[in-house]
Specification:
mainly alpha
Length: about 525
């Protein structure tokens, strides 16, 4: 590889370089600003938070100017999916930074913000992966900082228990993903997704089927699909509000993007399986996962009295909605995958907004946990209650909110699917969306109808309030003007610079020799 090629490739990952460079500064400088006894300067967390926002702003500028690369033979690729996920992670990563502004200790703030930026960089690299090795490394770049970020607050036994559970089960899921990738490599003799797709044009054997099943099972853990969801309620309950919000969104982005990359296998069209031969294996599996996840998530949410546990099961149900888009969109229908990507954006805005409000109104040192804690919120914090109601209506799927459009797009994509399974999924989605109104309205009823003193925080924290306001505004704006986000989800984006890296031809002779 020449210097020009290295320099050209570096330009394509400038957003991630900006984030990782800031992470290095935080990890290197952070310990020098904390005394040996663990005491830090007052307000240090605000300075690190401001630096995180600057890093995300710089990454956003690089993202907007990054040209489209068509190098489908290297470990990374740049296409419409990469561009979309980068923009989504930068925007909603900024909201997470605002949400955690007052929820981390000064002495641990550098590590917390550094871990978050690393997670966002890993999310971007997952979307850019064009190789099994780079895909696994990007997934681990998300997982390992998540363990640390869960452990750092360690306020009580519940948070420590949440960290241990997430670590053990996440390690198990990573092992499943790694074993599945190893089987795919053993069956095809290559780690490049485009070359694997070329190999599969002529058929696939038991190793491919087993490897695909293990890979989907491992990724199902990250998106909290049933039956791999059982860790979520306990982990959410033991986590502070900002962490629960991040866990409800970032792993879903990573998991679904990895699934899209796997089902496209190097195709130039998002949501189209190039070989087409795995449709008979994967589509029934994804359809069953979608139906089961929607039903179990909503039914289990009925019983919950803890807000974090309720939102955990809500997260499970929303994973089922997104699986509908994947199951009908990964096999020839671009609309299904576009609906999934649009819903990822709307869901992230909605759920992060809810947790931002919980972080804003929570007393110092703890998070609001029980639904009864919201009693009387409309009288003491009327603006917070109003924003919470808007976001909960959006999660339910009611107009005029983005959640309505997100669910409608998924419903129409499933209903227009050529197979009867797609129409069955559309009906199940509509029924579950109606059922979910019950437990979301319970929260609204607690705020507006139940007597109570409300949360004890007299003045909501300004940074999480700003995050909540942004989420509420985006929820309404995306309903009124969804065109730009929908076009980006469909792969339409502003004109990029000329392509400088052309794809090398795939050597079919070399592929056949590995069989």
């Amino acid at each position: 590889m020449t210097f020009d090629q290295i320099n050209n490739a570096t330009q394509f990952i400038l957003p991630e370089i900006a984030l990782i460079a800031t992470v290095c500064v935080m990890f290197l400088a952070g310990p020098f600003l904390v005394s040996e006894s663990g005491v830090a300067q007052s307000g240090l967390r605000h300075r690190w938070g401001f630096l995180s926002l600057l890093a995300l702003a710089a990454a956003g500028v690089f993202w907007w100017k990054t040209p489209l690369a068509a190098d489908v033979t290297g470990p990374f690729r740049l296409d419409s999916l990469t561009w979309y996920v980068r923009g989504l992670s930068i925007l909603l990563g900024s909201i997470i930074v605002l949400t955690m502004w007052n929820q981390v200790e000064d002495s641990r703030s550098a590590e917390c913000h550094a871990c978050l930026l690393t997670i966002l960089a890993g999310t971007n690299l997952t979307a850019a992966s064009n190789d099994l090795v780079s895909l696994f490394l990007a997934l681990e770049l998300v997982s390992i900082p998540t363990y640390i970020l869960l452990y750092l607050p360690r306020r009580d036994d519940a948070s420590r228990e949440a960290t241990i559970k997430y670590f053990l089960l996440s390690a198990f899921s990573s092992a499943m993903v790694l074993y599945g990738l190893a089987l795919l490599y053993g069956a095809t003799g290559t780690t490049n997704l485009a070359t694997i797709a070329a190999y599969l044009r002529s058929g696939w054997g038991p190793l491919v089927a087993l490897g695909s099943g293990l890979l989907i099972a491992g990724l199902a853990f990250r998106i909290t699909a049933v039956p791999f969801h059982f860790y979520a309620p306990d982990v959410f309950q033991g986590s502070p509000a900002f962490m629960a919000g991040m866990l409800s969104f970032i792993p879903k982005v990573v998991g679904f993007v990895a699934l899209i990359r796997f089902t496209t296998l190097g195709s130039s069209s998002v949501g189209f399986l190039e070989s087409g031969l795995l449709a008979g294996l994967l589509k029934p599996l994804l359809t069953a996962l979608a139906a089961l996840t929607m039903i179990v998530g909503n039914l289990m949410a009925f019983r919950q009295k803890n807000i974090h546990r309720l939102m955990a099961y809500s997260s499970v149900a929303h994973a089922g909605y997104m699986l509908v888009g994947l199951s009908v969109g990964a096999f020839g229908s671009l609309n299904g995958t576009s609906a999934l990507l649009f819903y990822l954006a709307t869901y992230g805005i909605m759920t992060l907004g809810v947790f931002a409000i919980l972080a804003a109104i929570s007393p110092p040192g703890r998070s609001l946990q029980n639904i009864e804690d919201l009693a009387g919120l409309s009288r003491h914090h009327s603006a917070s209650a109003f924003m919470m109601a808007i976001l909960l209506f959006s999660l339910t799927g009611l107009p005029p909110t983005a959640g309505f459009l997100g669910k409608l797009n998924l419903f129409l994509a499933a209903w227009s699917d050529a197979s009867p399974a797609g129409q069955y999924l559309a009906i199940i989605l509509a029924v579950n969306a109606a059922i979910s109104a019950y437990y979301y309205l319970r929260l609204i009823g607690a705020m507006y109808l139940n007597p109570g003193v409300g949360p004890s925080a007299s003045h909501p924290a300004p940074a999480p309030v700003a995050a909540a306001i942004i989420c509420c505004v985006l929820t309404i704006v995306l309903f009124a003007a969804p065109k730009h986000v929908w076009n980006a989800a469909e792969g339409k984006r502003p004109a990029a610079a000329p392509i400088t890296a052309q794809p090398a031809p795939i050597d079919e002779t070399a592929i056949s020799s590995t069989r």
